[in-house]
Design a protein that fits this description.
The chain is of the alpha/beta class. The protein has 13 helices and twelve strands. It binds pyridoxal-5'-phosphate (PLP). The site of pyridoxal-5'-phosphate has 16 residues, from helix 3 and helix 4.
């Protein structure tokens, strides 16, 4: 942390938290400590606490301190991917026989982790619509250990009231875990609303440039943070130093990027909402979105992700994805460049036949920060 004690705003923390100038050289950017082991001054005599880079690495430590500061948590931890972060958290807080409530709209890989991996390990799950608290209450059991939520959700952009859901989870003795990948901590701070753990795919908005795969956890409580940190080292799915450095570099501009992503996405949503070939637009910034008021209450802006349903069905939706020129057809999201995809056949193919299956006529766009007129023109020509 920096030396002076003045309170710092989000954009200041994004650039400085965990990242004071290098004490030896004065380098203003945290170096990439591309190293596995550290010289000891006599057996057990560690300099600065570092002994082996799976356990801790100075570049990763800088990122982890920054993550904790941005989410307002006690402990931040950086992983090799979002799914590695999720797996480490889940195998820290759950044991065989435990139960977890998962949302009916979520990243396909998250659902696959529960349905194909953790289930074999003896963890049971129930699927609930987290936008409806009665549905969540009905899914809770005496052995429910956690409630998992995404808001905005992937890919349907559903909005869940985090403060209300935290009350329901805590009332049942369960932890609330929030996947904050779509919003980023600049737009939404789940811990302040009652969440116990925040999950990120830092591959997305945190990294922000489609050049790194990474994941993060931020724990509200120092004790739970210590337990998860123990498992991070014991399980070993850590972020490498260069990847940590890339994520840290991305985070420095998170605020200005999210402002532009959100402004561009609002214009894209407006265009789509008035287009005859579009049957429905899913964007929490639109007043007609069922979660609009909650989103306005708990988010600073509505984010850069927009989904829409194409009149004419699956083939028409696929055609739109194939016809864009500036929006790149590809999986992932949150980079400076605009992406388009067909969730049913791409990111969410693994949810086919499950309660998390997505509509076949759905298209998802990650609205980048290119010139908005160019983005609108491309979508217009692709819709025909
Ligand atoms: C991409 C994504 C993940 C998984 O993260 P990886 O970095 O790809 O492992 C988890 N949750 C959400 C919402 C995502 O978009």
């Amino acid at each position: 942390m920096t030396e002076h004690q003045l309170p710092q705003g989000f954009e200041t923390l994004a650039i400085h938290a965990g990242q004071e100038a290098d004490p030896q050289t004065g380098a203003v950017v945290t170096p990439i400590y591309q190293v596995s082991t550290y010289k000891q001054d006599g057996v057990g005599g560690l300099r600065g606490g570092y002994e082996y880079s799976r356990s801790a690495n100075p570049t990763r430590t800088a990122l982890e301190e920054c993550l904790a500061a941005l989410e307002g948590g006690a402990r931040g931890l950086a992983f090799a991917s979002g799914l590695a972060a999720e797996d480490t958290l889940l195998r820290t807080i759950l044991k065989p026989g435990d139960h977890i409530v998962i949302p009916n709209d979520a990243y396909g890989g998250t659902f696959r982790l529960f349905a194909k991996v953790l289930i074999r390990w003896g963890v049971e799950f129930s699927v609930a619509n987290t936008q409806n608290l009665d549905d969540v209450r009905a899914a809770l059991r005496p052995d429910t250990r956690a409630v998992w939520v995404e808001t905005p959700s992937n890919p349907l952009l559903g909005i869940t009231d985090l403060a209300a859901l935290a009350e329901v989870a805590h009332g049942a003795g369960a932890l609330l875990v929030v996947d904050n990948t779509f919003a980023s901590p600049y737009l939404q701070q789940p811990i302040a609303l009652g969440a116990d753990a925040v999950v990120h795919s830092t591959t997305k908005y945190m990294g922000g440039h489609s050049d790194v795969v990474g994941g993060a956890l931020v724990l509200a409580d120092a004790g739970l943070g210590e337990e998860v940190a123990y498992h991070q080292n014991a399980m070993g799915a850590v972020s490498g130093p260069f990847d940590a450095w890339l994520v840290m570099r991305g985070i420095k501009t998170l605020g200005v990027r999210m402002d532009r992503h959100s402004a561009n996405a609002e214009k894209v949503a407006e265009l789509l909402a008035s287009h005859p070939k579009v049957s429905q637009v899913l964007y929490p910034g639109l007043p007609e979105h069922p979660g609009h008021d909650i989103a306005a209450k708990q988010m600073k802006a509505f984010g850069g992700m927009v989904s829409f349903r194409v009149a004419g069905g699956e083939e028409a939706a696929v055609e739109v994805c194939n016809r864009t020129q500036l929006f790149t057809l590809g999986e992932s999201l949150g980079g400076v460049e605009s992406l388009i995809e067909h969730p049913g056949r791409m990111t969410h193919a693994s949810a086919a036949g499950s309660p998390l299956e997505v509509p076949a006529d759905l298209v998802r766009v990650s609205v980048g920060i290119e010139s908005i007129d160019d983005l609108l023109a491309d979508l217009k020509q692709a819709l025909g």
